[in-house]
Specification:
Blueprint lengths: L1 H6 L9 H22 L3 H22 L1 H7 L3 H14 L5 H10 L5 H17 L13 H22 L7 H14 L2
InterPro entries: PaREP1
Keywords: Coiled coil
Protein name: PaREP1 family protein
Length: 183
């Protein structure tokens, strides 16, 4: 099921199904992160954990779009938010987007986005005893953050159940992820 879910085209961000599709993507990516961890592939796991968090941010951005449009100051920012941020969630703007989500009530999302970005750096640079290219001295430190980030992802998705069109496919993916993580 994992590959099939990730290969499906995403619904347009303007449709009701977009949030559910991005949440499902987050859950599947998170499960793959844990699978890679179990095989000792920590850098790959870090990349999948990052992708899972990014998909969650996409869902949150779409879910909160009306509130976010009220906090941006210019038409140019509104246009960028609708046409670029929601469908793509650019890595270079994830902190700024998380700050905006904090402003509309998603408290604590910014520090977890920072963890996701640090895992993204680790994926490319690997462990760094000098902490110059990566915030992780060894693979064990990165593995701990992968698991912590996935627990937070589960918690946030569970909080969204009442606000989105919750399907059996989402429920099954959430249940499988929780089982794999041992939550």
């Amino acid at each position: 099921m994992d590959a099939e879910v990730l290969e499906r085209p995403l619904p347009k961000p303007t449709t009701e199904d977009y949030v559910g599709a991005r949440l499902l993507e987050a859950l599947v990516e998170a499960r793959l992160a844990l699978e890679f961890l179990s095989k000792g592939l920590v850098r790959n796991a870090a990349g999948k954990a990052f992708q899972a968090w990014r998909a969650l941010l996409a869902a949150l951005l779409r879910l909160e779009l009306n509130n976010l449009l009220r906090v941006v100051r210019s038409d140019e920012e509104r246009n960028w938010l609708v046409n670029k941020a929601v469908p793509r969630v650019p890595t270079t703007r994830m902190k700024a987007l998380s700050q905006m989500l904090e402003e509309v009530g998603h408290h604590g999302v910014l520090p977890w986005t920072t963890v996701a970005l640090e895992l993204h750096d680790y994926q490319y640079n690997g462990p760094d005893p000098d902490l110059v290219m990566s915030k992780y001295r060894n693979r064990e430190e990165a593995a701990v953050d992968v698991k912590l980030l996935m627990r937070e992802l589960i918690r946030r998705i569970e909080e969204l159940k009442a606000r989105v069109k919750w399907t059996d496919e989402l429920e099954n993916a959430l249940t499988e992820l929780k089982r794999e993580l041992g939550s």
